[in-house]
RNA sequence: GUGGGUGUAGCUCAGCUGGUGGUAGCACCUGGUUGUGGCCCAGGAGGUCGUGGGUUCAAGUCCCAUCACUCACCCCA
């Protein structure tokens, strides 16, 4: 084959797409239970939106964005910035003091693809804008946990606080001092991180860095009073809601805008990609983007990762296709009769499949079986002469004759009557 | 951007130290039933062995390059 999809871009084909629908349906159900409204934004935004929100010096902005350089526009690498832009642009804070919004869609990052990480990937993104109360943080995590639970996935929740502009600089200084003393013991990546983003040293995967960092100052002990109180209530809230979590003082977020609460839903079953969802609070961001001075918190779930987990958990079995009825026509005359009949049945709301290639009855029965048809209606020249079509129940293998009468309409009403009698099995 | 692994039928894969591409499984089509599915049996169709060079009498197999896929690093959902 000559033309294939781009590296890191994937088709979601029948057999797999059912799982995606399941994830999405479950999410919409839960989100609406928690009073979230959907919002949909464009995929292209001005480049500046992302460089200002995500952070000029992050990897995402520095080298991973799909940008049309000549036009200064970028395909969104994450949803929060776009969502906040829309929030500000439409003055949504005026309509409601607290906005609860979610969005589902594709994001784009030019990274090297690997398991659970693509260049076009999909996220379900949830944001609460305007709420400062730590209970909201706890509730948001509880909602994420509930969704994952409903999907049948077992993941753990890790929690940290990154402080705020008042207390983080102090911690940063303390950490830097600690790292400088041990600079030679750090891996090459961490030596680089000391200047680029010291907090990142905390979650280095290198074993020697990990042990070294055990002794490092803890952010949780450097929080200012406000942040410390907030963090405390978040944890109380989680306990009240019965959401299990563990504190992880090494957890750091990649995006610049996070403040206070940060969290990740973690799994050990996805190779290097441990996080199936993550998020946190971003209290200064909306103002920084030119909006009102309101706080915000949100998180994103990686849909590819959720689908991968579901596939691993229950196999990649293809969901059987389903239709109510397969109509088998035999011969030229019957086929001409069947063609409009099928359409009439579909207009009545039935799922109907049929054959278009004039194949043998055996072949059509096979198709019907594969399509998961509950009934097959057989109409050949014999049936047309007799004025009776054969209706076969695929499960019980029973067949009955149905009067065709004078035409499509007559047969249609008889068929619907026949289905009516079996309504119970239709609904199953 | 950096490293490792893998490219043979639609899919999953055999193919030994070079000697004519597999009776492989799944899927597909036809037949076994002159008009009846799942199971079974028989047959059929389906390939530029990723691509381009090189070595050789001879390359799916060895060498080089290239592309693609994949896992990991970096980073992240």
Architecture blueprint of SSEs:
Layout: H1 17-33, E1 37-38, E2 44-46, H2 47-53, H3 59-64, E3 66-68, E4 73-75, H4 80-89, H5 92-95, E5 99-108, E6 120-129, H6 134-150, E7 156-161, H7 168-181, H8 188-196, H9 207-214, H10 225-240, E8 246-247, E9 259-266, E10 275-281, H11 285-288, E11 296-302, H12 303-314, E12 323-329, H13 332-347, E13 352-354, H14 361-370, E14 373-379, H15 381-386, E15 388-393, E16 399-403, H16 408-421, H17 423-427
Parallel strand pairs: 1-5, 7-8, 12-13, 12-14
Antiparallel strand pairs: 2-4, 3-4, 5-6, 6-11, 7-9, 9-10, 10-11, 14-15, 15-16
Helix pairs in contact: 1-6, 6-10, 13-16
This protein binds one RNA strand of 77 nucleotides through α3, β6, β10, β11 and α12.
CATH architecture descriptor name of the largest domain: 2-Layer Sandwich
End-to-end distance, in Å?
A: 43 Å
What kind of sheet is the major sheet? 8 strands, mixed
Order of strands across the widest beta sheet?
Answer: 1-5-6-11-10-9-7-8
Supply the CATH superfamily name of the largest domain.
Bira Bifunctional Protein, Domain 2
Bin the strand percentage.
Answer: 15-25%
Number of domains: 2
Give the structural class.
alpha+beta
Please work out how many helical segments DSSP would assign: 17
Name the poorly predicted regions: 424-428
What is the CATH level 1 assignment of the largest domain?
A: Alpha Beta
CATH-derived topology of the largest domain = BirA Bifunctional Protein, domain 2
């Amino acid at each position: 084959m000559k033309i294939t999809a781009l590296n890191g871009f994937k088709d979601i084909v029948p057999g797999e797409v059912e799982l995606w629908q399941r994830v999405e349906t479950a999410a919409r159900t839960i989100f609406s239970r928690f009073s979230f409204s959907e919002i949909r934004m464009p995929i292209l935004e001005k480049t500046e939106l992302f460089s200002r929100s995500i952070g000029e010096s992050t990897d995402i902005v520095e080298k991973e964005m799909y940008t049309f350089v000549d036009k200064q526009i970028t395909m969104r690498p994450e949803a929060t910035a776009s969502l906040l832009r829309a929030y500000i642009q439409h003055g949504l804070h005026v309509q409601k003091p607290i906005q609860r919004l979610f969005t589902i869609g594709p994001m784009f990052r030019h990274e090297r693809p690997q398991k659970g990480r693509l260049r076009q990937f999909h996220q379900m993104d949830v944001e609460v804008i305007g709420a400062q109360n730590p209970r909201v943080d706890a509730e948001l995590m509880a909602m994420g946990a509930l969704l994952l639970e409903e999907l049948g996935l077992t993941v753990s929740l890790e929690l940290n606080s990154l402080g705020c502009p008042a207390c983080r600089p102090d911690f940063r200084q303390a950490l830097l001092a600690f790292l400088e003393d041990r600079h030679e013991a750090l891996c090459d990546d961490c030596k680089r991180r000391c200047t680029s983003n010291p907090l990142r040293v905390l979650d280095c995967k290198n074993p020697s860095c990990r042990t070294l960092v055990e002794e490092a100052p803890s952010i949780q002990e450097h929080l200012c009073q406000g942040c410390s109180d907030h963090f405390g209530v978040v944890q109380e809230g989680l306990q009240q809601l019965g959401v299990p979590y563990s504190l992880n003082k090494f957890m750091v977020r990649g995006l610049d805008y996070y403040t206070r609460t940060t969290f990740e839903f973690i799994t050990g079953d996805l190779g290097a990609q441990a996080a199936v969802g993550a998020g946190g609070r971003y209290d200064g961001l909306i103002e920084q983007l030119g909006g009102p001075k309101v706080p915000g918190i949100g998180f994103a779930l990686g849909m590819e990762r959720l689908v991968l987990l579901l596939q691993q958990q229950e196999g990649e079995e293809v969901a059987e296709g389903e239709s109510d009825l397969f109509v088998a026509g035999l011969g030229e005359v019957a086929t001409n009769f069947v063609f409009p009949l099928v359409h009439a049945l579909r207009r009545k709301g039935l799922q109907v499949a049929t054959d278009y290639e004039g194949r043998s009855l055996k072949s059509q029965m096979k198709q019907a079986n594969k399509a998961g048809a509950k009934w097959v209606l057989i109409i050949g020249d014999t049936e047309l002469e007799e004025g009776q079509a054969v209706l076969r129940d695929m499960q019980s293998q029973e067949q009955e004759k149905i009067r065709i009468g004078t035409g499509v309409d007559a047969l249609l009403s008889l068929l619907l009557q026949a289905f009516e009698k079996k309504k119970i099995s239709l609904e199953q």
